[in-house]
Specification:
The protein is α+β, with helices and mostly antiparallel strands and 485 residues long. The chain has a domain of 105 residues: Orthogonal Bundle (Helix Hairpins), CATH 1.10.287. The chain has 18 helices and 10 strands. Strand 2 and strand 3 form a beta hairpin. Helix 13 packs antiparallel against helix 14. The radius of gyration is 33 Å and the shape is elongated. It starts with 7 loop residues before the first helix and ends in a 14-residue tail after the last helix.
């Protein structure tokens, strides 16, 4: 049976005299086949990828390829060594009658047996490799080559509107119960239309865990509301009791979302601990509150690092190195603007108290107060996208996935303009433009996000698939709760 095992050349689908370039092309083709079958129902045997990697690494190194070619040479191809009858010896005891055998055949040791006796044992014989397509794939990139792969979003506003309107109506009819199913449909649409190198992401979350998480969140909010109506002291005690629960819920939610997100069949995972979450949400969160939000940029930075530094794709971790100074510089302008706005409102209130007897002044102040909703909308349409665009660039430009770095070039002015137009359209259509607005934002953000790939993205994904299959799915944790909206 071992003698029938395919050679490395057969695994790659090349001739034994194939050049290095031909081997690279064939390897890229086989990786593409393996990648296309990962999402299929008949998933390929991981041993196939193990042997494919071993074949490629062996045949692209001149020394190991020469040794491997030598091991493939059958013994029958080696010129027989002439044998000479031994000279008669004078020692009678050493004289042995020769054993005559008819038609002697030289002993041939099977190649598989020779290879099995070598120190590195090959994996079990995999299924026959998939056939090579007629269209050649691009050769694998060199290990030191770096190129940018752009993200893109292929969704359409009209298409998403049909999903959105059905989700909205069913959520209303079921008094919010369908919202868990609505989230799954929404997440699947946006994940599957977010493309990188021609492949989309995917979302595998199930509605029941999401519904369980929302029931838990609803019960906690109801308990706080009841405590607030009964007694302020009881409300304060309830808040203190809830503080250690929030980090636990956050870890469960991050873990659920990461575990149910995948790219080319490989899932993300989240490995943050409760202690880390307690430090971020309770420690830095309370610090931000007690400093009148002056420490909010510090809290924001620690939160983003907590999420990204503990997220893995396959077995490779993300790492974010954004500095505290960079985040503080982003929040400086909005903070000053909000401070001026508060000072203006206080001044208006003082003038209103002093000029209560002046009817004309009161009319003017009443009109000023009526503009407060418009001011809040302006803040939402201008300041929020300003912060979102700048923090996205600051965070992603300092985030790496192993040897690969992210690049975010989100234009601040363009993103503010996009958000402002979306808000005007939403107000003008009484909310019906919301699906188009979400698609426009997703497309705009994706168009300005790239990843600088070091080497070959296919090689990286194939290596992660091998490691993931070797480690198996993580079953120690229960991914059964999501409180995200």
């Amino acid at each position: 049976m071992a003698a029938l095992e395919a050679s490395y050349y057969e695994v790659l689908g090349v001739d034994p005299d194939a050049s290095l370039a031909e081997i690279r092309i064939a390897y890229g083709q086989q990786l593409n086949h393996f990648r296309s079958r990962i999402n299929a129902e008949n998933r390929p045997d991981p041993a196939l990828l193990d042997r494919l990697h071993l074949a490629f690494s062996t045949l692209t190194d001149s020394v190991t390829r020469e040794a491997y070619d030598a091991s493939l040479t059958p013994a029958s191809d080696i010129a027989p060594v002439a044998t000479v009858d031994p000279a008669p010896t004078t020692d009678p005891a050493a004289t042995v009658d020769p054993v005559v055998t008819a038609d002697p055949v030289p002993t041939v040791v099977p190649v598989s047996t020779v290879m099995a006796e070598q120190p590195h044992t090959l994996p079990p014989s995999p299924p026959a490799p998939p056939s090579i397509p007629a269209t050649p794939a691009a050769p694998a990139a060199d290990a030191d080559e770096t190129r940018e792969e752009d993200f893109s979003f292929a969704g359409d506003g009209g298409e998403y509107f049909r999903i959105w309107i059905v989700n909205l109506l069913l959520t209303i009819v079921t008094v919010g119960i369908y919202s868990a199913w609505a989230k799954v449909r929404r997440e699947q649409y946006f994940h599957r239309n977010l493309l990188l190198d021609g492949s989309g992401f995917d979302y595998h979350g199930q509605p029941i865990p999401i519904l369980k998480g929302r029931i838990v969140a609803f019960l906690l909010l109801m308990a706080l509301s009841v405590a607030q109506n009964i007694d302020p002291v009881l409300y304060g005690i309830a808040l203190l009791l809830l503080l250690p629960v929030v980090p636990w819920l956050a870890v469960k939610a991050f873990r659920f979302r990461a575990h149910n997100t995948s790219y080319r069949g490989l899932r993300f995972s989240f490995h943050g601990t409760y202690r880390q979450a307690l430090k971020v949400f309770v420690g830095y969160g309370l610090l931000a509150m007690f400093t009148f939000w002056l420490a909010f940029p510090l809290f924001y930075r620690q939160l983003r690092k907590f999420v990204l530094d503990n997220t893995r794709f396959g077995t490779t971790s993300l790492a974010c190195s954004v500095s505290i100074g960079a985040i503080y510089r982003i929040f400086l302008f909005p903070a000053l603007l909000m401070l001026l706005l508060m000072v203006g409102l206080i001044a208006v209130a003082i003038v209103a108290v002093d000029g209560a007897q002046n009817p004309l002044l009161m009319i003017f102040l009443g009109a000023a107060f009526m503009l407060i909703p418009l001011i809040l909308i302006a803040i939402q349409a201008l300041l929020v996208p300003y912060v979102q665009a700048r923090t996205a660039n600051a965070v992603w430009n300092t985030t790496n996935l192993g040897p690969h770095g992210f690049i975010s070039r989100l234009p601040v002015g363009g993103y503010i303009g996009l958000t402002a137009i979306n808000w005007l359209a939403i107000i003008g259509t009484l909310g019906l433009f919301i699906p188009w607005a979400r698609v426009r934002v997703a497309r705009y953000r994706a168009e300005h996000l790239s990843i600088a790939v070091s080497g070959s993205l296919d090689d990286f994904l194939a290596a992660e698939a091998t490691a993931a299959s070797a480690l198996g799915d993580e079953t120690a944790e229960m991914f059964d709760l999501d409180i995200g909206l």
